[in-house]
Specification:
Strand order of the largest sheet: 1-2
Helix content: 55-70%
Number of helices: 13
Structural class: mainly alpha
Shape: globular
Strand content: under 5%
Number of strands: 4
Length: 362
């Protein structure tokens, strides 16, 4: 397939620009509380304590400027079930990886070999995550807002587009690029990719086993998160209603309205427990086993390992892929710290030796 050189050049620089902007926006999210709350999901979205909720309600007329703009553009509109959204993202990655692989095959140039293998790994990753999302992970029933949906779609679109356009751009403009793949890099990247994929699968499986017996209906999921939920059946709703008074005393919430305050994180009713509820159908426990013995978010650690394997495979020569790795690592490390803080605040018996994302260090 013949692709105009101008389109390749435009796609390459557009991709570089996208990742630079994405990194900048995520840094803004870290340091801007309102924007961070706007883009949170899973248990972290529902973990505000009573004082934080009350503060937010009292400041409805004093919204952060950025958040006000996002609301004005209707980016806060919840448009799709979170599980379905992630399945759509992985499906997009699956299709684009396959498509760009065959586009490079038509090029018939040895310099595209590493990128073609990269697209094969993208394809495998997308297929596995699609399977896990549908059959394994169990998460809180929720909807994704328009901003997060657009962000997720652009992420996987530019992940593939970046590698494709930069590879062709460098073939056309940088003649000194190596013409053969480094075998050592190939083997090392495949090893890291396999380890990361396996450990991420086992981490999700452990969370699923913890929560699988706690719910009795359809569940939803998000990428790389540790929250869970179930959409209760008619029968379970009746049973839950009969326990309202008891559960209200324990959890400190009105379980008929998920938007009501979640109990304060300092509530001693939870401090001596090994499980935590935000609603009757949403229970969290301290995960154990495999990498959970060392870090709170082994699935995030595994994801970083997988993306690092991509850099090794391409010999660190794709600038857009390096920027993607920086953005992805920043995202996952930040979220792992949030998750680690959440676990420590909810469980007084949470292992003190357990780190957030890097064993023994971080």
């Amino acid at each position: 397939m013949i692709i105009n050189d101008y389109l390749i050049t435009f796609g390459y620089f557009l991709s570089i620009t996208f990742w630079i902007i994405s990194i900048s926006i995520y840094i803004l999210k870290i340091f801007n509380d309102d924007f961070g709350t706007f883009t949170s999901y899973g248990k972290l979205k529902f973990s505000l304590n009573n004082k934080e909720k009350k503060k937010n309600r009292n400041n409805d007329n004093e919204q952060n400027f950025i958040t006000s703009i996002l609301n004005f553009l209707f980016l806060d509109r919840e448009i799709i079930d979170t599980k379905q959204a992630w399945m759509f993202f992985y499906s997009v990655l699956l299709v684009l990886s396959n498509l760009f692989f065959f586009f490079l095959s038509d090029k018939n140039d040895k310099r595209t070999t590493s990128t073609q293998i990269l697209f094969i790994l993208f394809f495998i990753q997308a297929g596995r995550r699609l399977y896990e999302t549908h059959f394994i992970q169990k998460h809180r029933k929720s909807d994704m807002n328009l901003l997060l949906f657009i962000s997720g779609l652009c992420y996987y679109l530019f992940l593939t587009l970046s590698a494709f356009t930069e590879t062709l751009y460098k073939i056309n403009n940088i003649k000194s690029e190596t013409s053969s793949i480094n075998i050592f890099n190939l083997l090392l990247s495949l090893l890291l990719f396999s380890i990361g994929s396996f450990e991420q699968f086992k981490s999700h499986e452990i969370l699923s086993l913890i929560r699988g017996n706690k719910t009795n209906s359809t569940t939803t999921t998000t990428t790389t998160t540790t929250s869970s939920s179930s959409s209760s059946s008619f029968t379970s709703n009746i049973n839950n209603k009969s326990k309202n008074n008891f559960l209200n005393n324990i959890i400190g919430v009105n379980i008929d309205d998920e938007d009501d305050d979640i109990q304060d994180i300092n509530d001693k009713d939870f401090n001596d427990k090994t499980e935590y509820k935000t609603t009757p159908s949403t229970k969290y426990e301290i995960p154990n086993g495999r990498l959970y013995q060392y870090v709170s978010s082994p699935h995030y650690l595994s994801e970083i390992l997988i993306y690092f394997s991509y850099l090794i495979l391409t010999n660190f020569k794709l600038n857009s892929l390096i920027l993607n790795f920086i953005f992805t690592s920043l995202n996952l490390i930040h979220r792992s710290f949030q998750t680690h803080k959440w676990y420590k605040s909810k469980f007084s018996k949470y292992p003190k030796s357990r780190k957030a994302i890097i064993p023994f260090l971080l």
